[in-house]
Design brief:
Elements lengths: L9 E6 L12 E8 L4 E9 L2 E8 L11
Parallel strand pairs: 2-4
Antiparallel strand pairs: 1-2, 3-4
Keywords: Disulfide bond, Signal
InterPro entries: Gtb1-like, Man6P_isomerase_rcpt-bd_dom_sf, MRH_dom, PRKCSH
Pfam families: PRKCSH_1
């Protein structure tokens, strides 16, 4: 998916129903993977208790990657 505000190729993975936080919700992760030359963590934030959003760059999601069918 591409847009003018996010010009790179990307994919999103969501991991839900993790271990319950102490006195809180179950842990969850939203992982955005963008096309990049090498593996790189761009950002990690916790917008809500035990909810994590990660942004990474990796050649694994690039459309011209020879390892992707």
């Amino acid at each position: 998916a591409q847009s003018e505000s996010d010009p790179g190729y990307y994919t999103q993975q969501i991991y839900a129903n993790g271990l319950r936080c102490w006195n809180g919700p179950e842990r969850s992760v939203k992982l955005n993977l963008e096309c990049g030359i090498e593996n790189e963590i761009i950002s990690v934030v916790e917008p809500e208790k035990c909810e994590y959003h990660l942004k990474m760059k990796t050649p694994a999601v690039c459309p011209d990657n020879p390892f992707i069918d």
